[in-house]
Amino acid sequence: MKLDFVKLHGLGNDFVFVDDMAGQIELTAEQVAFLCDRHFGIGADGVILVRQSPRPECAGYMHYINSDGTLAEMCGNGVRCFTKFLVDHGYVSASDGSYVADTLRGPLPIGFKVDDAGKMTFATVDMDEPILVPAEVPTTFEATGTAPNGAGFASGELEFEGWSFAFTTVSMGNPHAVTFLDDIEALPDAFFLGDEKSLETFDLNRIGAYFESHEVFPAKCNIEFVVKTTDGLAMRVYERGCGETLACGTGTCATVVAGVLTGHCGRVTDVTLRGGLLHIEWKDNNHVMMTGPAVQSFVGSVEL
What is the reported pLDDT for 242? Predict the structure, then answer.
């Protein structure tokens, strides 16, 4: 099978996009893994099939598959790239400035900006309300605090090689566990690659992989490691079913929600990721707004 594709990324979180508006494409887990393989395939963090939505108010449905072949409920960087695909390919008019995207989580209103050529550059996504109920994240942690809207949120401590990490759990349609490294110098030397102790040298792939599959997360979990900066927050993420990615939109939203709940940041915060910066606002109506770019890398075709 010959497959035409477009490679897009949001702050380095990259995806293989396939136009499936005709609803005729089904990919196996092995095919997805091949497409995402950075040595033998195209290379990506996931594959997104662009499909028609059964909802009349939505311009399209984002069918997102992780690089390991598992289906993902939501992807913040992915939905910005989804917006760029729809606008740049004429499924959404560049002059509209906004539309509604359909996702596995549900419809999401999105505003966007375009350049002089009518190509999308930035999008602001209404990521809906954070889900804090422990069973709905899901996590077996119990509710230990109260959010500004009165909802209880779950947190707890998990041990790795004798060190205890404090996690706050949030779902943005997919599960996240956020830990703030408030005293990074106090962490064991073995947790870092090299002599310097910093978020950049933190051994995320080893430690994140352990927590991703911890028994307190029955559906596995995206794991965020965060430090405060003079400009807001800095975060690295180990994505469920993917490993470390250069950015994670839902993870950034979850990080700011967790930061507000634990007193680490305000409701309007810039978060620096390895791939760049996202602007997050947790509004008084309990919706989380995410603003960031989307970029096309290249187009091509591949034989499957």
Answer: 86
